[in-house]
Structures are given as C-alpha cells and as structure tokens.
Design the sequence.
C-alpha cells in the first residue's frame, strides 16, 4: 500500500519540480534574453574583433602590407622597451592614485557619516569633482601646474619643496605626479560615495555595545568599521583599478605621454599607437596584454574578497 501511494504521488511531484525549475531557472533568462543579446552584441563582438586584430598586420600607412601574422605582434611587444616603460608607469600611476583616493575617500566618508553644521553644502562640494568633465579637469590642472600663469609651482617653491617655480609637467622625474594629483582630485568622490553608503549600513548598536565595553575609537574602527567595509573596499578598489589603468584622458591632455615617455601608460600608448602611428594590429596586441593583466588582477582580488566574506 505504501509503495502504491508513493508511486501515485510521484508524477505530481515531478510536475511540481519541473514547474519550479522552469519558473526560477529558465523563465527569468527568457525575460532577460533581449538585454543579454544586446550586451553580448555590444561587448563580445568588438572584443572578438579586437583580439583578432592583434594577430594581424593592420597599418593604414601601409595598406598593402596586411594579413595574418600570427604571434609577430606579441613577439614585438615582448622586446618593446616603450611598452615596458608604459607598464611600469601604469603601475605607479594606478597605485598612487588608488592609495590617495581611498585614504581621502574613506576619511571624507567617515566625516560625512557624522552630523555637523553645513554638512549638505560640504557634501555637495565633495561630490563636485565627479561631475566635472575629464577634459575640463585636465585643462584646469595643466593650468594650475603652469609656472607662468599657475599658482602651484610658486606655492611649492615657497614651501621649499622645489628650488624655484618651473614646469613640473616638463620634468621627467616629477611629471607623472601632475596627472596623479588631478586623478586623485577627480576620483576621491567615488570612494566617498560608495564607502559612505557602506558606513550607513553598519548597525549603530554595534558601536553602542563597543562603547559600553570600553572600546576606544581606534578599536571600534579596526574591529567593527573595517571588517564591515572590507567587502565593499575590495570591490571598489578593483573597479577603480581597472578604470584608472584604462584612464588615459588626463594624461593625454596634460602631458601627451611626455616628456620622454615618463608619463606614458599602457592605455595612452595604445591610443598613440593606433591613432598616431595608425598601427591598429600592434595597438590591439598591447590592448590584449593589458586586458590579460587586468583579468588576472580582478580574479585574484575577487578571490581575496570571497575569503574576507567567509571570515
């Protein structure tokens, strides 16, 4: 009797299982299919074409010397001194930009998480750089660093940081710090906005309990604030790193990659190779190399983020 009853209910159970599978595993993707097709078309097709270009010789100045060349572009890339200089510059450009943006953004987020007079005006001023067009930001900072009409070289000379006012953007030793400064000013609001949202999601009862237990502000910060912010910090740092590594606008407008390639980063090198030398095949190979480096970085950081979430 038990076996018979079980067999009678089994088809209904199967139908219910199929219905749940269809509702939760198949049906959502049917509704999302137009967006998936559109995103795939916009992203995947250019990506495949760009990767295929890296295995071809495509030079507009030599239109008859085209075709598949296999790994020749990558072999040339390996021995290209300018590429390795640009890669080193990309590391320092990204590292210092992220470091200062994160520290200043975290400080501003913690300040905006408190109540004080004029908070709304201050918050609007903090978020203002993010609304300024990149081209305008670059022109403004290039003017500020100009030793003739800009104030920054004179201020630095007055503070004794430099011996006399001169064109810092023309000094190979210091030129990269000009775009880094502009990038820090431009990118701090991103960290301030995202970290402020994360701070506001931390339950206030945790801080009250810590205060009752006699925890110092530093202990509350290290034991409560940072652990709660860690997943958000990981994802924001990953996103900003990818954006900054591909962010050639400020450098191209302020220095054009000079002097003597001292401010040339990989993304600006891709642009100059493609649109000045008109060598799209080699530029695509450089772009694929940058893509591979950033993919490895993103995978490692996401793995670390999973570890932090489990902890």
Sequence:
């Amino acid at each position: 009797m038990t076996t018979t009853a079980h067999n009678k209910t089994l088809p209904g159970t199967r139908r219910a299982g199929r219905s749940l599978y269809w509702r939760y595993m198949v049906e959502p993707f049917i509704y999302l299919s137009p967006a998936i097709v559109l995103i795939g078309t916009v992203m995947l097709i250019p990506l495949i074409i760009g990767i295929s270009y890296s295995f071809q010789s495509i030079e507009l100045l030599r239109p008859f010397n085209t075709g598949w060349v296999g790994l020749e572009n990558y072999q040339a890339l390996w021995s290209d001194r300018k590429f390795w200089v640009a890669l080193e510059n990309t590391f320092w450009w990204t590292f210092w930009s992220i470091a200062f943006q994160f520290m200043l953004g975290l400080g501003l987020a913690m300040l905006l998480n408190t109540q004080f007079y004029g908070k709304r005006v201050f918050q609007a001023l903090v978020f203002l750089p993010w609304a300024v067009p990149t081209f305008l930001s670059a022109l403004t900072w290039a003017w500020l660093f100009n030793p003739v009409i800009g104030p920054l070289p004179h201020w630095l000379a007055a503070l004794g940081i430099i011996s006399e006012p001169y064109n810092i953007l023309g000094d190979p030793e210091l030129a990269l710090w000009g775009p880094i400064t502009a990038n820090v000013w431009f990118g701090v609001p991103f960290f301030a906005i995202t970290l402020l949202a994360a701070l506001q999601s931390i339950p206030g009862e945790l801080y009250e309990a810590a205060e009752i237990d006699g925890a110092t502000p530093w202990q509350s910060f290290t034991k409560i604030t940072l652990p709660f912010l860690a997943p958000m910090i990981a994802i924001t740092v990953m996103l900003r790193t990818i954006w900054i590594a591909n962010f050639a606008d400020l450098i191209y407008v302020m220095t054009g990659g000079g002097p003597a390639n001292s401010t040339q980063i990989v993304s600006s090198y891709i642009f100059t190779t493609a649109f000045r030398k008109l060598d799209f095949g080699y530029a695509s190979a450089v772009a694929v190399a940058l893509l591979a480096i950033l993919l490895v970085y993103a995978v490692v950081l996401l793995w670390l983020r999973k570890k932090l979430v489990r902890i």
Notes: Strands lie at 56-57, 67-68. The chain is about 75% helix and 0% strand.
